[in-house]
Amino acid sequence: MRNNDFFRTIDKPSEGLFKDKGSKFIAYAYPVSDENQIKSYIQSLKDQHYKARHHCYAYRLGKDGEQYRANDDGEPSGTAGRPIHGQLMSYDVTNVLIVVVRYFGGTLLGTSGLINAYKTASIEALKSADIIEKIVSDHFKIQFSYTVQSHVERLIKEYDLTIDEAVYNVDCTYEISVRKNLSDAVLNQMEKIEGATVTVLSRE
User: Fold this and answer.
1) Is residue 55 packed enough to be buried (19+ CB in 10 Å), middle (13-18) or exposed (0-12)?
2) Which of 16, 32, 140, 199 has the fewest CB within 10 Å, making it most exposed?
3) Residue spans per domain, the chain
4) Band of residue 204 on the pLDDT scale cut at 50, 70, 90
């Protein structure tokens, strides 16, 4: 488990290609956030490559990749999904789906040949991807009177916080994003401001 407050993922879809003995392995990597998105991408590729023999895939979800799955889609057990998942682990990326579409070339590759093919196609897709770091944030709402607005603003500046929404009525209400590693300190400081009420909207 990581102790930091960021994770590595990819910025946009990418592709990779590997060929062996007439078989063609086309790898598609996608940034994803939930299983519905994953199902949609897989179905889209099945529709697009309806003549392909296999549509094997693996994905990781969550900051630490704690939610994952590998699918061989008819290939011998452990020869497709697991090598794809292995590359997601090797590149230390999460919230990523890789689907490798195989067009059969007429020659059997054997267990080691299949593992190498799915692994290499996945590597090619990740090599061509833009790997980025995303910050994990918690979200708070703070309601306060105008008399303490300067205190709140000072706290926001000190911790470089992001104001997601600001509402000015009889009192002020800010919804803010806080880097996870700073959350406890920020929450503690907010609760010390007289006339301010803090609500936790979400914590990772």
Assistant:
1) buried
2) 199
3) 6-133, 137-202
4) low
137-202 CATH fold: Alpha-Beta Plaits (3.30.70)
Rg (CA), the chain: 23
For residue 100, give Cα distances in angstroms to 57, 73, 164, 192: 6, 10, 38, 54
Q: What is the pLDDT of residues 125-162, one digit of tens each?
A: 999 999 999 988 899 999 999 999 999 999 999 999 99
* Cβ contact 191:199 at 8 Å: no
> 121-144: b or e for each residue (b if 16 or more CB lie within 10 Å)?
bbbbbbeebeeeeeeebbbbbbeb
* The pair of three-digit structure tokens given for residue 104, joined into one six-digit string: 């059969």
- Rounded to an integer, what distance in angstroms lies between the CA atom of residue 80 and that of residue 53? 13
Q: What is the mean pLDDT of residues 97-118?
A: 96
6-133 fold? Ribosomal Protein S5; domain 2 (3.30.230)
Paired residues of 6 in beta bridges = 135
Q: How far is CA 66 from the centre of its chain?
A: 11
Percent of the chain surpassing pLDDT 90: 89
**Closest by CA position to 87, among listed 26, 29, 5, 19:** 29
